[in-house]
Every structure is written in C-alpha cells, then in structure tokens.
C-alpha cells in the first residue's frame, strides 16, 4: 500500500515528461530509475518510514544509483586489471571490500525476513538494435558451405543494384552541365575574390552589385600578359598527349615550354624538334661559335679600367 | 665639375661654319658606366675627322641632353659652346599662340641644328694650334667626355620596382628615337649621310649583356670581376642614327638555323622567344634569294625589350622589338603580325641600315624599297590574296588620308629655302625635316613610298626592279670594304637621282612621268566612272571623270586599264586618259545572246556556269572594272547595276574585285545581294578576309531590309551549320581552331551579327541570346590553341549589340533600373574581367574588350558614366594594351562629358608617364577623338589649356621629336592654325607681324571674319578685364583714374542704351562728347573698354581691330621704329576693306568717326 503511495506519483510525472523523449534508450533509462525508486521506497518502508519528501526520495535514489554505478565501475576496473573482460563474483567482492562494505553481512541481510519482494523491472525496448532493411532475397548457402556459417548479407550490399535511370550520355546535357558547372565555379571564385579583396564598382548606389576585382598594377606586367597561364599549359599538354599524331613541329616546340624553363644556356642552341633537324645534331651543337656564348675573358694585367 | 657651357652669345653660333663637310672616318664610343639605380650613363666618344676644307676652326656636332665634361681635339683642350634651339622653340614669347608661327619657328630651330646642313647643337672651337694642321688636311681626333642623367629621350631605362638585384628585376636600357635621334645619347654627327666605322665599348654589370651594332669582338671582366666590358667593332661604314644599344639581363638564344644570328629577350620569356624566332631563317632566305645578295652584316641580333618606343626599329646589324611581339605556339592572331614585324625589320637591314640615304628627301627610296620587298615576302608567305588585299588596304589608307588631310609628298624639293616655297602649304607642319613631321603623315609617307615602288615595278617588271636593288647593294658592299680615303663610301648612300639612274640603266625605260606624277607631286587621283551600253553599235560607252580640284587630289593623264567581263570572256582594254576626253567607246566582243549551255570563260581561264537570269537581256556585260591592277594611286567610284556587282562578287576571282563588290553592294539591300553575300560566306575556297567583309556587309543589308527580311537573323543559320553541333544546334562545338580560315570566320560572325537591329532599333533578342549562348557553351579544353582572341571578340559582339538606353528625364543610372538584357551582358563582362585577374589571357585581350564594353555601356546610358575604373586601368604597371584601351575610354569620357579634370589628368600623363609610347598614344588618340574642335565652342577651351599645350610643344616635349609633333597635331586639331579663339583678343597682334616680317594682320582677326563672327560669346567676357589692365601695367603714362572713370561712365551709359531700339548714333555721339579734349591714349583706352557684349551690332572684328590700333600706339610709344609704321599702314588698309564690308551690313552711320577718325582709321568711313 505504502509502496504504491510512494511509487505512483513519481512514475506518472516521468511518463509525462517521457512523452517528449521516446527514444528506446531513454525509455530504458527511465525504467531503470523507476525500479531504483521502487527499491528505495521499499527499503524506506522496511526501515519504518511511512512517507518521504520527494526531494529526499530523489537524493536517496541518486545515492543508490551512484553506489551501484561505483560498484560496477570498480568491479570492471578490477577485472580489467587482471586482463579479463567480464567481472566475476570475486571482482565484486573485492570491490565491495575496497569500498568499506562488510561482505560477510551480505548473506544475512539478503535472507532477512521482512524483505520485500520487488517485481523485476519491465523489459522495455531492451533490444534497440534496428532491424536491417531486407531488400531482395537472401542467397542460400551453396552446397559446399556448411549451413552453420553465417548467412549471406542482403544482396544489395554486394551485388550491382539495377537502376532504371540512364547514365547521362546525352551530348547536350553534358555540354550544358559542363558549361553551368564552369560558370558556377567561375562565378563563385570571382565573387569570393571580390569579397575578400579590394573592388571597384560600376554603380555608385550599390557597390556590391557587379563587383569588379580591383586592378592592381604589377611591376613586370608583360610576364603575365605574354606567358601562357598554367591552365593553358595544362590544356596544351592534354591535347598534345591525346592528339600526338597530327602534330606539327611548331606545336611540338611549344609543348616543350615547361621543360624549357629550366633549360641551361647550353640548351638554347638545341634545334627545335621536327623533320628539319640535321642528323649531326650533337656535332653541330659543339661547333656553334657565337660570340655571346664564348666565355668571358679575364682582365689583362696591363689593361686599365 | 659641371656640365656644358651655355652659349653666352648666340650670334656667335649662327656664324657660318667654315667647313661644309667633315668626314669622320672612325668613331669610337665607350660607355663605361651604366647605373640603373640612378638611370645614368657615363662615357666618352672619340671621332676621327678628316677636314675637307681649309681653316677648319669650328666643328659642329649634334648632342642633346648630354652633359659634356670636356672636349679635346688632338689632346688639346678645346672650348665648346652648347646651344640647342629646339629646347624651347619660341623664346621669350609668352603671348604668341599661333601655330603657323610655331611651325616656322620650329622648322627654323631644327634647321639650325641640322647635321645635313653642317649644323649642330655643340660647337667646338678647334684650338688655334691646330689650325695650321687643318690647312694640311690632317686627321683630327675629337675626344668628348659626357654623361647622361635620367635621360628623357634617346635611351630608355626600364627598372621594375621589385626586390632583388637589377638583373633579377629584369632592369634594362635601350636606345630609341624617331629618325636621327642618336644625339640624345652621345655626341655625334647625327646624320644618315655621314658614314664612319665604329668601335663600341660598353662596361656593364657582370649579370647583364650589352647588345650593340657590329661584331662582338670580346667580353672582358673588369679587375674587380664585378663588371664586364663588351667590345664591338663595326667595320662597315654606318651612320650614327643607325647605332643602337640595349643592355639588360637578357636570355640568349642562338638561332638554330643561323649561328651568326642571336636573339635576346628578357628573363623568363625564352620559350616564347624560341617559338617566335623559329621562322626567322625563312625570311632571311627569302630576302637573300630575291636580292641575290648576302645579308650585308656578319651577324644579326634581335632584342626584345619592354616599353618599346615603336614595335620595330632597325639599326645596323641589330633590331630592337617590343617584347609584346613574343608569343607562344598557342596564339594564332599574333603570329602573322609578329612575322610581318620581323620581315619589316629585316628588309630595313638592307635598305635603311646598310644602305643609308643621301638626304631627307631621299627617304622615300629607302622606305619604298624596304616596304616593297617586304610586300614580296608577304606575297610569298601569306599568298597572293593576302598580298593583293594588303595592297588594296594600303591604297585605301593613303587615298583616305590624302583626301582628308591633303597630299603626301614623297620627294620634296626646297628651292631657295624660303618659307613661301613650302611645297606642302596645306599641312600645319613642315616636311622639311623628319623631326617636324606628324607621325601619321610619316606612316602614310612610308605607305605611299612602297606603293609607288610597286608602280615602278609594274612599269619596268619585277625582274629589272630586283636587278636595280641588287646593283645598289653590290655597289654598296664593294664600297663598304674600301677605306674611307677611296671616297667610295657615298655609294652606300642612296639618292633619288641615283636610284632613278639605276632604273633607267637597268631597264632602259623612262619612268620620268611616273616619278613626276607620284614622287615629285603630292595627291591621289579620284575617278568617277559610269557607263552605258549602246546596243546598236554593240559598244560600251564608258565615261571616266576626275576630281582634281579638291584637296589631296591631282590630275591623271595617261593610260588606264579597264577590264570588261562579257558573256564570251574577259577582255582588257587600255584607255588613254587625256585632257578633255571623258567618254571612251569600247567595242564589245559578244552579242547579247543567251546560250544557256555555254560556260562563261573568266579572266583566269576558268570556265563557269552562271545563272544569267538576273542580267539585262540586251547587254552582254557582266561586270566592268577600272584599273584592276591598282596601277594608279586612285580612288574609283564606279557605277554599275547591282546584279553586275553580284556577278563580280560571285565570279571574279580577284580578291580586290570581290572586296570592291562587297562595299558597293552595301547600297543595294535586295534579296539578290543577300544571296550573293551568303553564298560567298559559305564558300570555303573564298579568301577569308573577303568572307569577313561579307559578314559586315550582310549585317548592313539586313538592317536596311528589316521590314522585308524573312527567316532567322542574318548569318545565324549559317553559323549554326558551320560551327554548332549537329544534334543540338543551339550549342556550339567545342573549339577546334586548326583551320584558321574558319577560326577567323567563327570569330567575326558574332561580331557582325550583333550589329543587326530590329524595328525598334534594338539588337534582336534572338541574336543576343545566341551570343550569350556562345559564351556560355564556349569550351576550349580540347583545343590546342588559345581562345583568348575568340572570347575577346565575343565580348566585342556584346558591345556591338548595345543600343542607347531609353532615358527618362536624365534619371540617375542605378542597379535597379538596369535593363534585363543589359544585366545579362554586364554579368558576363564582370565575370570575364574578374576571371582575367586570376587567369590572364595573352596580351590581356579580354580585359581590353571588357573595358571597351564598359565604356560603351556608360556611353549608351546604361550605367553611370564614370572614368575612375578606366583611370585605374590606365596606371603605369598594367599591360600596355590595357592601358591604351583604358586611356581611350578616358579620352572618350573627356569628350562626351567635357571634363576638364580628366583632360588635365591626361595631359599630366603626357608629361609624366614613364612609357613614351603611352604618351604618344594619348596625344594621338586625343587628336583623333578631340574633346572639342576649332569648329565648336567648348568650356574646355580656355586660356589655361592653350598655355599648357603651347608649353608642351614649345619646351615640354623637347626630348622626343615624335611627341612634339603629336602635340602640334593636337593643337592643330583643337585650335587650328590661327590664334585660338578663346584667348583674349590679340593685344600682341602687331608683335607677331613684326617678328614674322610680314604685313599680315593677326590671323585671329582673319579667322573671325568667318560666319558667326559678330557674336560676342559670354566666355570672352573676362577678357575685357585683361584688356583693361594690360595697358595700365605696361604704360605708365596713362592716367589710371581717367581711364577708370571714363570706363565706368561709358559702361553705365552703355547699359542704359542697351535696348535695341536705341539708335547707334546716339551712342557714338555720346562717345564723341566724352572724349573731346582728352589725352589721345586715354581715348584709346576708353574705346577699348567698350566691350562688345552690350552692343550686339558691333562686330567682334571691329573690336579687335581697335585693339590692333591700340597696339599700334603702344609701339609708337615704345619702339618708334619706322619699319613697323610701314607695316601698320598695310594693316590698316586691310582693316579698311574688311570694315567696309562689315559696315555695309550693319547700318553704322558716320557717327563713330566723329569721335575717332583722328587716330582710329579702322573705324573711319
């Protein structure tokens, strides 16, 4: 009777709040706590209390829970200390001893006469493991696989799933997509640059409309204006590799652009590739006598500068 | 120790030099220090002179801006005098603002230092110890130490403002100049006719290379090993203007085909240099082959520099190019341009550098020959079509220029040297010196010169022509190996008479009339042709008329070729243009019949099927061409029916004929023209430039046919068929520019299509969307060529599609009221311009197009007009093409918005910009798109501007001949030849007359006799003040109070009497009353103070003449020179006449005379 009086108000409230959070783990937690409360209530009744303040009840429940948790944690630690994964009875005993509990009193206490029997907590949503989606029919084991082996997983996890949309191979769509993609990238990039740097505007009233990245003079303007940009070089390499056949010597020459950058003076005299190259190229190279390639002379002693 | 001596006694300088010609055999120049940090140069020169006259006591050399430390003649210190009259053309002349006066003063100044006349800025007195030696005609050695500090002309330093050593910064220096400008960087005889051999030494930083003329003998380190000295020897006699120098941390490329040819470029550009130079050997081979002569120098060097003065400049054994000519293999458009530049430079190596000229008037021979052989190269490399197209282009150019500006004279003769004998009175500059020529004129001069060479070729055949060249070259090369003493060197100088003599020797033909017509005479021929077919006689009656009265034209008498395409074939007829014969009867070969089965033979032997339904059933004529070979420098306006032009376009195989037909078809907007043009567009055998021209013509025709046009917009379906995908016609194929003809067509068609207009005069929506789609779907990933020019032209197409915004009472342009189409366009432009910052295109072509587009948007009122964006792009440090485009926009803004601050900004740039080319371009663009002209009033036209421009040409541009002529040109465009009208009336009218020693009235007065003269503009109101205060400052003997009082009094009365009804008589009687008994000068004063404003009937002219009189008095007071008095009489007489005319129209009674007849003859009747 008393227990009912004690127990009823709290779960009701809980259930009210639990309405909002209905996840299985939450429910499980709530059920456990409710059980604990019942335990605390019954212990109190055992000790002769007729009623208890709610706050006191909560505090006691909290203490109880902490104690049990601590026992569990310590027992686990003890067990892991001995390189095991599952705590045994002796682990718990050691723990209890560690926590200053007289273990010998436990059997007596457990067999006390006025002990109240509490029903086991209801198993609410204990198995929270979601059910896997079953798509298609699972394959049965072939004959050479014993039946006790695990079943095949769902077919969709290991075989090609047939889809009914054609891959985008329509020329128009591809072009459209490439164009809009490039445009989007360009727009985003330029907008970003415009937002992060200095800008100029075409309109006085709305500076943010059509922002133009500010023109910055450079010390050597001809370099960027004359040298092909990296993108162009890249394009060139790509087209060259793909269209190696119909190359003329001029293109070939420019394809060497990137290598030429590091070329030493000696390489300057290398003939451009192509059909016109004389066979004795190596000899030729050594024979080139150009005054600008000659070594600089050391000053003569009599020379006065 | 400081500088040269300023000449204390100018009269001493002008005394005639005792020596007509000195011959400097050897010339040694040594520059031993080039400081990039300070932009200074120190060196010395040593000339060896062979006096040819007795008593050589004075040596004149050319030198500008050099600081001369010492001069020694044969180791004796020699005193010297430095005077450069071109520094300031008009001395102590603060008020004179008349271009006629300036031009003559400038010519005189240039003549005063003209080396060909034995003059020079630097006059060295030969030490008296040597005089005797001079008598014995001994060699003299003149040694001059000099330095240059921050030279403004002659040498250009490019020192980029980045970190690192000078070599890492790509700092370089090079010589430049217009014509003979070597005097700017070392003292010399700066003449093309003074040849000598050269020894050149340049000591530069060890990281640098000094490239100069001649053979590099050796390179030696200095003792500290930090510098090296480049020793050059040029054994071939060369004129000083053909000497050049370039120093910089150049990358060196030995030409793989010709090891004696070396190329130099700035750091990092070597790959481009390799690509660009890969075809130079072909040009060499070509010239050597046609001239049957080896390249005259033992080596050749090409140097590519930044901030070049001109694209191409040739010097003895080397050429300096703009670095912007370099290109990679991905660039299509630049390649032919650069090839042409190289070919030009090389042609000038033969004629211009190796063979120099006797005098300035022989320049046309050199320019003519080099231009002509360059043309032959074009023909060989780019084909006959390209060549003929080029000839037509050049011919059109020269014809247009001469008809607009007056004749171009190739070989001027100056008899007597008097100004009156000016052979080109129509020009606002003198053609006596290369340094007084307008740049535009000089370009046209070169153009005409090579066209005339071609005419000579037509006359004597190419074979003989090349023989003549070969003869000139072989004589010169024989001479070049001789010693000076053998007196052979003059063989290396070409003269007009020598050239003509060789022609007659080689060909045996008399080309006298041809030379007289085109070389000794200026002007082109303007023909008008029309015809009628006489069916009875089966004769073509051709009428050819000439206009030889308008400016720039001349009369042609002689043969003319006419080609008639008939049904039976093409027939050439040579007609004789004579004095009075206009009509020519040409018998026809074929009857007007229709044999449908028969093919029609063409000129080239081809036989074609034609649909003859369009032609006139009675006439066998298909088309007629006048002077098809362009063997006359002429413009032909020929009238023939539209179907004849259409046949000509379709079936004539000559590109010139096709182009003529296209331009003629513009005025025949018919479906047949449309069809003919479309057919040409589609025909891929047709020359691509013709097809390009057809695009624009088709756009024009479509606009004229707007109401009857059927089908999609012109060219759209054609473009779709040629360049778009088969499966999805709205999407353009991915770029593949391997076929250049279709590349050019693909580039051009959208630009032409954007010119289409609908009934509302807007670009059709369909066309705009089409262009936007082209931009959207442009995909260059698979292309081996860059698409930067293509994209730039797509932006140009967007620009072309713009039409003026519908403006509602001048509202402010905001983002919100932007037209939706314009918004799309603007978005594309913004994106392109921003992308360019991240991935710059070759030569920033896209930025250039975007700037033009933005200016067009502003101009059409879509976005607010604002120059600040352009000004930021015009800054130093942007690529030169971008700067030019931005400046063009600023100049346009200045004109449209009449902004004086922008004009000021531009003029400041002209004075301060580091790049000479930019300065030149600003002035020439201003002259092309002037903020105002002499014809129209403008608030911009004020005294301060006149003063500024005057100062600019008078002294501000003394370091650059070209720039000075540009300034003169601009001044001419803005104000004309006479005194600018915005100036205060000519107080100094008389001063001018005295100086010029002419009895001519101040030209201002003349100019204001024109229509609109009597109007007194409010803008001249302030001048009133000037006039008043002027005499009070200058003349102390005038009673100030009297003047002021009387002035106030008159003014008061004038205001009272302002009403039109007031009889003038009263007014003048009033004056008479007031001034009776007053001192004469104050009477004058009071009269002067009578402004024109309150009295509309009094012409400005009369006011100005009063001023003249006023001055008359001043001068009487001040100078009292009889000579002047004499002049004044003249002047008065002149005024009398003009006054009379004026008086007739305005009913001025005799009244003014009553007060002023005594000393105001101009007003007395």
Automatic annotation (TrEMBL), chain A:
Residues 237-249 have a biased composition (Acidic residues). One of its GO terms (molecular function) is protein heterodimerization activity. Gene3D superfamilies: Histone, subunit A. One of its GO terms (biological process) is transcription initiation at RNA polymerase II promoter. Residues 295-305 have a biased composition (Basic residues). InterPro entries: BTP, Histone-fold, TAF8, TFIID_su8_C. Residues 28-105 form the Bromodomain associated domain. Keywords: Cytoplasm, Developmental protein, Differentiation, Nucleus, Transcription, Transcription regulation. Residues 17-28 have a biased composition (Polar residues). Residues 1-28, 237-305 are annotated as: Disordered. Pfam families: Bromo_TP (PF07524), TAF8_C (PF10406). Coiled coil: none annotated. Residues 250-261, 269-280 have a biased composition (Low complexity). GO terms for cellular component: cytoplasm; transcription factor TFIID complex. This is Transcription initiation factor TFIID subunit 8.
Automatic annotation (TrEMBL), chain B:
GO terms for molecular function: chromatin binding; RNA polymerase II general transcription initiation factor activity; transcription cis-regulatory region binding. Residues 1004-1024, 1087-1165 are annotated as: Disordered. Residues 642-1000 form the Transcription initiation factor TFIID subunit 2 TPR repeats domain. It comes from Cyprinus carpio carpio. It comes from the Eukaryota. GO terms for biological process: RNA polymerase II preinitiation complex assembly. SUPFAM superfamilies: ARM repeat, Leukotriene A4 hydrolase N-terminal domain, Metalloproteases ('zincins'), catalytic domain. This is Transcription initiation factor TFIID subunit 2. InterPro entries: Aminopeptidase_N-like_N_sf, ARM-type_fold, Ig-like_TAF2, Peptidase_M4/M1_CTD_sf, TAF2, TPR_TAF2_C. Residues 1137-1146 have a biased composition (Basic and acidic residues). Residues 1108-1136 have a biased composition (Basic residues). It is found in: Nucleus. Keywords: Nucleus, Transcription, Transcription regulation. Pfam families: TAF2_3rd, TPR_TAF2_C. One of its GO terms (cellular component) is transcription factor TFIID complex. Residues 522-640 form the Transcription initiation factor TFIID subunit 2 Ig-like domain. Its main location: nucleus. Residues 1147-1165 have a biased composition (Polar residues). Belongs to the TAF2 family.
């Amino acid at each position: 009777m008393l227990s009912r009086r004690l127990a009823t108000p709290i779960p009701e409230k809980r259930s009210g709040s639990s309405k909002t959070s209905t996840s299985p783990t939450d429910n499980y937690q709530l059920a456990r706590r409710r059980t604990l409360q019942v335990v605390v209530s019954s212990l109190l009744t055992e000790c002769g209390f007729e009623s208890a303040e709610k706050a006191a009840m909560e505090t006691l429940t909290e203490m109880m829970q902490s104690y049990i948790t601590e026992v569990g944690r310590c027992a686990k630690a003890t067990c892991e200390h001995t390189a095991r994964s599952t705590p045994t009875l002796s682990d718990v005993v050691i723990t209890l001893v560690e926590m200053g509990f007289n273990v010998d009193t436990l059997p007596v206490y457990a067999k006390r006469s006025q002990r109240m029997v509490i029903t086991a907590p209801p198993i609410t949503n204990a198995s929270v493991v979601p059910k896997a989606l079953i798509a298609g029919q699972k394959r049965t084991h072939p004959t050479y696989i014993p039946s006790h082996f695990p079943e095949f997983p769902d077919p969709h996890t290991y075989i090609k799933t047939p889809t009914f949309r054609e891959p985008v191979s329509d020329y128009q769509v591809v072009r459209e997509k490439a164009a809009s993609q490039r445009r989007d990238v360009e727009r985003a990039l330029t907008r970003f640059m415009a937002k992060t740097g200095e800008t100029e505007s075409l309109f006085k009233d709305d500076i943010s409309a059509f922002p133009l990245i500010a023109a910055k003079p450079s010390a050597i303007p001809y370099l960027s204006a004359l040298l092909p940009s990296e993108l162009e070089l890249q394009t060139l390499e790509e087209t060259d590799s793909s269209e190696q056949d119909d190359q003329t010597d001029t293109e070939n020459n420019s394809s060497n652009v990137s290598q030429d950058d590091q070329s030493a003076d000696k390489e300057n005299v290398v003939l451009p590739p192509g059909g016109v190259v004389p066979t004795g190229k190596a000899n030729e190279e050594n024979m080139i006598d150009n005054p600008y390639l000659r070594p600089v002379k050391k000053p003569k002693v009599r020379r006065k500068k | 120790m400081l500088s040269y001596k300023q000449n204390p006694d100018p009269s001493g300088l002008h005394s005639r030099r005792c020596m007509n010609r000195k011959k400097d055999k050897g010339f040694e120049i040594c520059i031993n220090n080039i400081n990039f940090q300070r932009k200074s140069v120190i060196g010395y020169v040593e000339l060896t002179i062979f006096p040819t006259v007795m008593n050589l006591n004075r040596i004149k050399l050319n030198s500008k801006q050099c600081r001369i430390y010492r001069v020694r003649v044969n180791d004796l210190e020699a005193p010297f005098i430095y005077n450069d009259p071109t520094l300031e053309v008009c001395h102590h002349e603060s008020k004179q603002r008349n271009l006629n006066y300036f031009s003559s003063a400038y010519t005189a100044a240039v003549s005063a230092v003209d080396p060909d006349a034995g003059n020079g800025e630097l006059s060295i007195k030969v030490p008296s110890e040597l005089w005797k030696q001079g008598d014995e005609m001994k060699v003299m050695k003149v040694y001059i130490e000099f330095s240059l500090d921050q030279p403004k002309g002659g040498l250009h330093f490019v020192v980029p403002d980045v970190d690192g050593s000078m070599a890492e910064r790509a700092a370089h220096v090079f010589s430049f100049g217009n014509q003979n400008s070597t005097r700017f960087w070392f003292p010399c005889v700066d003449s093309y006719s003074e040849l000598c051999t050269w020894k050149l030494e340049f000591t530069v930083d060890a990281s640098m290379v000094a490239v100069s003329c001649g053979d590099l003998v050796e390179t030696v380190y200095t003792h500290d090993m930090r510098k090296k000295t480049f020793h050059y020897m040029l054994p071939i006699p060369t004129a000083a203007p053909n000497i050049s120098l370039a120093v910089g941390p150049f990358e060196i490329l030995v030409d793989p085909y010709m090891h004696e040819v070396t190329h130099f470029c700035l750091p990092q550009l070597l790959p481009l240099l390799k690509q660009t130079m890969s075809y130079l050997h072909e040009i060499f081979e070509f010239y050597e082959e046609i001239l049957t002569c080896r390249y005259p120098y033992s080596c050749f060097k090409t140097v590519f520099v930044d901030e070049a003065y001109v694209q191409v400049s040739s010097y003895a054994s080397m050429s300096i190019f703009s670095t912007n000519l370099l290109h990679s293999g991905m660039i299509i458009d630049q390649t032919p341009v650069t090839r042409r530049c190289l070919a030009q430079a090389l042609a000038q190596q033969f004629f211009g550098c190796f063979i120099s000229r006797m005098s300035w008037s022989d320049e046309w021979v050199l320019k003519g020959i080099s231009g002509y052989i360059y043309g032959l190269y074009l023909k060989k490399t780019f084909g006959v079509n390209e060549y003929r197209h080029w000839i037509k282009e050049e011919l059109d150019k020269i014809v247009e220029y001469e008809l607009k500006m007056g004749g171009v004279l190739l070989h001027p003769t100056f008899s007597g040297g008097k100004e009156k004998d000016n052979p080109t009175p129509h020009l606002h500059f003198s053609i006596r010196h290369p340094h007084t020529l307008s740049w535009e004129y000089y370009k046209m001069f070169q153009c005409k010169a090579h066209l005339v060479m071609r005419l000579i070729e037509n006359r004597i055949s190419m074979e003989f022509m090349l023989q003549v060249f070969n003869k000139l070259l072989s004589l010169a090369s024989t001479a070049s190996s001789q010693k000076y003493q053998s007196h052979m060197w003059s063989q290396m100088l070409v003269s007009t008479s020598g050239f003509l003599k060789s022609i007659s020797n080689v060909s045996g033909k008399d080309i006298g009339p041809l030379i007289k017509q085109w070389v000794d005479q200026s002007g082109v021929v303007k023909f008008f042709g029309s015809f009628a077919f006489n069916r009875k006689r089966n004769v073509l009656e051709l009428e050819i008329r000439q206009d030889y009265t308008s400016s720039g034209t001349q009369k042609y008498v002689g043969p003319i070729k006419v080609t008639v395409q008939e049904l039976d074939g093409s027939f050439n007829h040579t007609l004789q243009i004579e004095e009075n014969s206009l009509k020519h009867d040409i018998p026809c070969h074929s009857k007007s019949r229709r044999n449908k089965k028969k093919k029609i033979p063409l000129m080239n032997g081809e036989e074609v099927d034609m649909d003859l339904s369009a032609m006139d059933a009675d006439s066998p004529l298909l088309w007629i061409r006048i002077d098809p070979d362009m063997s006359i420098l002429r413009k032909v306006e020929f009238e023939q029916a539209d179907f004849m032009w259409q046949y000509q376009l379709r079936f004539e195989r000559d590109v010139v004929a096709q182009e003529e037909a296209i331009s003629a078809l513009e005025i025949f907007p018919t479906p047949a023209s449309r069809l003919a043009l479309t057919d040409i567009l589609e025909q891929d055998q047709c020359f691509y430039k013709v097809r390009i021209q057809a695009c624009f013509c088709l756009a024009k025709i479509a606009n004229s046919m707007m109401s009857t046009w059927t089908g999609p917009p012109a060219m759209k379906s054609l473009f779709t068929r040629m360049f778009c995908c088969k499966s999805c016609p709205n999407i353009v194929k991915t770029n593949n520019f391997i076929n250049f003809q279709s590349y050019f067509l693909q580039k051009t068609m959208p630009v032409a299509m954007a010119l289409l207009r609908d009934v509302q005069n807007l670009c059709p929506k369909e066309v705009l969307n089409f262009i936007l789609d082209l931009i959207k779907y442009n995909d260059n990933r698979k292309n081996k060529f860059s698409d930067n020019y293509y994209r730039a032209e797509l932006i140009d197409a967007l620009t072309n599609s713009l039409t003026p915004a519908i403006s509602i009472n001048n509202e402010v342009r905001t983002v919100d009221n932007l037209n939706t189409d314009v918004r799309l366009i603007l978005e594309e432009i913004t994106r392109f311009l921003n992308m360019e910052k991240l991935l710059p295109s070759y030569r920033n072509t896209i930025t250039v197009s975007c700037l033009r587009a933005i200016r067009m948007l502003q101009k059409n009122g879509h976005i607010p007009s604002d120059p600040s964006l352009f000004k930021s792009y015009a800054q130093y440090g942007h690529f030169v093409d971008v700067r030019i485009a931005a400046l063009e926009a600023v100049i346009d803004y200045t004109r449209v918005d009449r902004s004086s601050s922008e004009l000021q900004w531009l003029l400041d740039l002209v004075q301060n910009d580091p790049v000479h080319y930019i300065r030149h371009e600003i002035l020439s663009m201003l002259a092309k798109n002037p903020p105002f002209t002499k014809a129209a009033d403008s608030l911009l036209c004020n005294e301060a501007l006149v003063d500024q421009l005057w100062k600019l040409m008078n002294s501000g541009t003394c370091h650059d001949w070209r720039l000075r002529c540009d300034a003169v040109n601009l001044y001419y465009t803005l104000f004309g030849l006479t005194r600018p009208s915005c100036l205060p009336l000519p107080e100094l009218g008389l001063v001018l007359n005295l100086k010029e020693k002419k009895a001519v009235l101040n030209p201002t007065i003349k100019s204001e006799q024109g229509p609109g003269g009597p109007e007194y503009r409010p803008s001249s109101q302030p001048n009133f003040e000037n006039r008043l205060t002027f005499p009070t400052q200058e003349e102390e003997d005038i009673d100030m109070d009297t003047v002021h009082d009387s002035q106030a009094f008159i003014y008061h009365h004038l205001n009272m009497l302002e009403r039109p009804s007031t009889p003038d008589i009263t007014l003048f009687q009033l004056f008479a009353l007031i001034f009776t008994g007053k001192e004469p000068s104050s009477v004058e004063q009071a009269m002067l103070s009578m402004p024109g404003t309150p009295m509309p009937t009094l012409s400005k002219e009369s006011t100005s003449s009063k001023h003249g009189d006023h001055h008359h008095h001043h001068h009487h007071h001040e100078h009292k020179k009889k000579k002047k008095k004499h002049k004044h009489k003249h002047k008065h007489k002149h005024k009398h006449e003009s006054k009379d005319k004026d008086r007739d129209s305005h009913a001025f009674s005799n009244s003014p005379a009553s007060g002023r007849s005594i000393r105001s003859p101009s007003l007395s009747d």
